[in-house]
């Protein structure tokens, strides 16, 4: 089986960590690592690994579209607004790592297979990848879900320039995704950047207001989700199982990264990258036989 050719647009922390994960994939090959600064740490790392680098951003693909089949956009929501129509015209399968919310919202543990025939798949946000499976489990197992709130705390050091640029889009896209996947009409998302040293691991708490909650059904649904996610994100752990506290349901999860290019505390970046690799590999299995 030939490996599927992948272009990564964006040479920051997310793009470089994706590169390391793709290099060890049996289904994917990074044929284009694309940035704007030929001497950025990510570009230097890619060249040290023998990966072809390009410093003319999206124009690198426009000049020779045959060099890639799949494009992973790890830039910013604003940049993806420009990139999406270009890549659609070129017929590329796009995995959007930004919270632009242009393509089909994808959480592999929930709707991976439904996304494989779309031309643009949006990975939502890191907090979304951590919380949405639990929000989905709540919506699936409970009647009358009145409100869901998710609070993610990440190390400040794991929030690079792109993450900080996208904070408004992060909140809007995560809240829309919570409502989409849970069926709840009211949702709130909060992101805390914690400056503690040593750095903290990513931790996400999900609160829900539910009439007459069925806790046994919820625990079963949550455990099913945890097992599914751990198949591609080994560091995803349930640290507080569904609990009633002050009349609301509380569930807490923690994400520790694989430590590929980024430190293990950067679980927020690791989970969204692992989710992107999961869908790229499934796409490769179907389209590269």
Automatic annotation (TrEMBL):
Tell me the protein family, please. Answer: Belongs to the acetaldehyde dehydrogenase family.
- Per UniProt, the enzyme's principal EC class comes to oxidoreductase
UniProt cross-references to SMART domains, sorted A to Z: Semialdhyde_dh
Q: Name one Pfam family in it.
A: AcetDehyd-dimer
Listed GO MF terms: acetaldehyde dehydrogenase (acetylating) activity; NAD binding
Q: What is its EC number?
A: 1.2.1.10
Q: Which SUPFAM superfamilies does the UniProt entry name for this protein?
A: Glyceraldehyde-3-phosphate dehydrogenase-like, C-terminal domain, NAD(P)-binding Rossmann-fold domains
Q: What is this protein called?
A: Acetaldehyde dehydrogenase
Which residues carry out catalysis? 126
Origin organism of this chain?
Cohnella herbarum
Query: Binding positions for NAD(+)?
Result: 11-14, 158-166, 268
Q: Which InterPro entries match?
A: Acetaldehyde_dehydrogenase (IPR003361), Acetylaldehyde_DH_C (IPR015426), NAD(P)-bd_dom_sf (IPR036291), Semialdehyde_DH_NAD-bd (IPR000534)
Per the record, the domain of life is Bacteria
Reactions it catalyzes: acetaldehyde + NAD(+) + CoA = acetyl-CoA + NADH + H(+)
The Semialdehyde dehydrogenase NAD-binding domain, residue ranges: 5-118
Alphabetically sorted, this entry's keywords are: Aromatic hydrocarbons catabolism, NAD, Oxidoreductase
């Amino acid at each position: 089986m030939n490996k599927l050719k992948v272009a990564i647009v964006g040479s920051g922390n997310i793009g470089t960590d994706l590169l390391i994960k793709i290099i060890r994939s049996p289904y994917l090959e990074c044929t284009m690592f694309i940035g704007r600064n030929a001497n950025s740490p990510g570009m230097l790392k890619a060249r040290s690994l023998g990966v072809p680098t390009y410093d003319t951003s999206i124009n690198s693909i426009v000049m020779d579209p045959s060099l890639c089949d799949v494009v992973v956009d790890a830039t910013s929501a604003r940049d993806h607004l420009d990139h999406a129509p270009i890549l659609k015209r070129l017929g590329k399968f796009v995995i959007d790592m930004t919270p632009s919310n242009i393509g089909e919202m994808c959480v592999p543990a929930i709707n991976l297979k439904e996304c494989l025939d779309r031309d643009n798949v949006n990975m939502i946000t890191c907090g979304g990848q951590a919380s949405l499976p639990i929000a989905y489990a709540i919506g699936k197992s409970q009647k009358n879900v009145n409100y869901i709130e998710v609070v993610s705390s990440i190390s400040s050091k794991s929030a690079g320039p792109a993450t900080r640029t996208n904070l408004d889009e992060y909140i809007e896209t995560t809240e829309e995704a919570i409502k989409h996947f849970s069926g709840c009409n009211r949702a709130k998302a909060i992101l805390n950047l914690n400056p503690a040293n040593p750095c903290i691991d990513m931790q996400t708490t999900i609160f829900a207001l539910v009439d007459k909650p069925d806790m046994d059904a919820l625990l079963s649904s949550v455990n099913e989700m945890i097992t599914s996610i751990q198949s591609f994100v080994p560091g995803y752990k349930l640290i507080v199982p569904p609990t009633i506290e002050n009349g609301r349901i509380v569930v807490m999860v923690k994400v520790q990264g694989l430590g590929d290019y980024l430190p293990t505390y950067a679980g927020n970046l690791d989970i969204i990258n692992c989710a992107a690799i999961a869908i790229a590999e499934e796409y490769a299995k179907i389209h590269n036989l």
